[in-house]
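haha ok so turns out i had the wrong file open the whole time. this is the CORRECT one, sorry everyone. sequence first:
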Amino acid sequence: MSTTSATASSLAIDGLVSGLKTTDLINSLMSVEQVPQTLLKNKVTATTSFISSLQTLNGLVQSLATRAAAAAGPASLDVFSATSSSANASVSTAANASAGSVSFTVGQTAAAQVGVTAAMTAWGSQSEPLTFVRPDGTTTTVTPASGSLDDTVTAINGSAAGVSATKVAAGTDATGAKLYRLQLTSTATGAAGAFTVYRGSADQVSAGTATNVLTESGAATVTAAADASVTLWAGTAAAQTITSATNTFGDLLPGLSVTVSKASTDPVTVSVARDTSKAQAVASGLVDALNAVASYYASNTGVTSTTSPTTGATSTTAGVLLGDATTRSAMQRLTSAMSTPVNGKSPSSVGITIGKDGTFTFDAGAFQKALAADPAGTQTILSGVAQAVSDAATAVSDKYTGSITTAITGQQSVVKDLNDQIDAWTDRLTARRATLQSQYSALETSLSKLQSQSSWLTSQISALSSS
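then structure:
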């Protein structure tokens, strides 16, 4: 509670006898009394702002540490991208991709089995079971809750048969009753997803007494289950066909994923090559991350001047981090790490240069030239620089031992202590206000008694004079 905003509303003592503006007088006295607390509050505001800046800077350094650690990897520049000569084959690369190229033809795409039953009004008069048999011999028996087609569809879709069922309208029979077919579709593509469905239990299937639903009159297998296939080096003695249950082939080349969408006898060539643009982004990203830290530090250590348009007076404001030794040391450490030679070679040899103002620039041309001339050497230099930056950034921003992290923790303790002092002052000032109110109330009471006595004496003297 602010002591300056308190009034004497709880004790109406203003000038009852003395005519003094007691509340104003007490507030004036309290404004002097609370000066130490106001100074503490101002200190809390300043320290909180300082902590906020430290936290922001620490977050930027942590981001730098993460990016630098990734760039420090021995293969951080081994970034590859894939291309395809056909729109019918899309490609993507994984982390273990390497340069290479291969051609193939697409024999067929993967398909899921689709079958339709004969037209019927109901599955059976009772809850007749169905048994699905997979190519590997796996059997799944499904028993509907009743003989209705709806219950049969529900039972199939809720089973582990790996088949979805849909009831499809199929006209009417001779009596006008509505007919339906069950469309049965394997939930997975590929030859392994094929199925045979029988009327009857697994035992009946084993005994050969169950009926194959898809060979009944009017039933059919609309689409056969099939694996996708591609043929490498088609038309040569080395031709080799590879199959996949899906349309995606993940092992044609290391780290290369190929997804086909259409069969074609025209050769498709897929290639994997180093992506110099992505490799450049690894190096430039490291520079950008450090410059983000440096930019924030500069904006919070500068001194700005403001001129009042009314009075013409000029005031200056210093950045919240100006003069802070911890952050200054951190920036020096990071800058030194980025500019330190690796095996006697300057980072500028791979495009990383430092300016007179301490900021870094990235020369894309120099990097690409170095990468083309000596990929391994470029990797070594970048990895060395990045590792140095990673070590420095981690030492600064580690969530337990980082120098900035420790400074944040220390300042938070300072704020806690200041708030404890402010709370103590609040209690002290509250008690002081109560004392002043009591004293002035007593003063009014005493003046009132004196005034009464004075009136009585005056009346007595007047009576004596008259007699």
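DSSP finds nine helices and 20 strands in the chain.
again sry for the mixup
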